[in-house]
Amino acid sequence: MNRLQLVNDQLLEPFDLDEAVSISCDSIQAMDTECMHIYDVYRRVAADNIASFIDIPNFDRSAMDGYAIGKTDLKRLQARRPLRLRVASIIGAGSIENRPIKPGETCRIMTGALLPEGSVAVIKQEDVEIINENYIIVSFRPRRGENIRRSGHELRSGDIVAARGQVLKSEILERIAACGIERIPVYKVPRVYIIDTGNELLLPGSPIKKGCIYCSNRSLIACKITSSGALPLLSPSVINDDLQTIVTAIKMAAQVSDMVIVSGGTGNGLFDLVGNAFEYLNAPLLFKGINVFPGKSTSAALLNGKLVFNLSGSPSAAGMLFEALVKPALLKLKGESLYKGDWFDIELASPIDHLKPGRSLHRGEMIIKQGRAYALPVSRKDINTGKIPLLLDINKRSEKEAVIVKAKLIAD
Asked: Which pTM was predicted?
């Protein structure tokens, strides 16, 4: 039975934040997939395991500029015998020359070049005495295999270079390119539609009116959607607090996007009509209210298989709830395997003023003191210091304030 149903005429307790995250994520599947060129998939998510189909490198090569020697001459050097060797050839990177090395001969070889047949070591050019362009004298005693990179020492054919659900960043894409793979299966980019509700809201650029404020939530949420690797879509205007207008906006948004975020209208006042719009649209509620501050009135519903979140109209609350609640679902929609994110324990650097009892979310920044990381709580006016931003999850169970708290990095 849905926990939102009435039991003995009483509404059940709000959901725990972690439970709300799980319910949201369990209600959706990852996007469909497409195959794209390697140069176009930076920060996209791999839709399948990507394996090398060759050994890398696929030939034995020199690790540096030097002189390749064969087995017989290596034994002579190891017996402490200086050798005078004839330079039989010069081999550059990309050369396909592979003539065997004969006793008494060497080949001058460049970094990354194909080793001639029979090579057992490469002596650095700094460790030889050059007589002329045709002869060198070697006293250095190399080990067998020294300065040689064998075929497959980086990757073997069949090795996985990117796993399904992994974000394709620069280092991973370099490995994929080294395998010669040109086209990569990735998940499509989610489109997230932003609706701002409120009679008092004006879009930036409009003349200010008495009793009105400028709408800043859409800028905040749009940036967070973009930094999450998704595509924000903006409603053409602010939506007034009118039931039919809100219903029409949500219905249209669900038709053109993969997720909808409605900002404002979360309360129980006369003009808080988003919940009524969900009911009018027959959109099943997943939860109404989360047992965390801010978020007591946050809700989510499903409309035609699309998640519709209703977040607070407060930019501070909306930003934190996006990170804690919406982003995990968005990353799952995007195809990421680690969509719930990494929370970690960290010690507070200073107390939080007026900390509420129970569970609450706060903005913070990571600072380093004497080689240790701490979380410094910050207010809205202090969030532009350039330090590493954090979201703090604090649970005050008693009058004694928490010292160790949960935190996650905020990407921007």
From this structure: 0.86
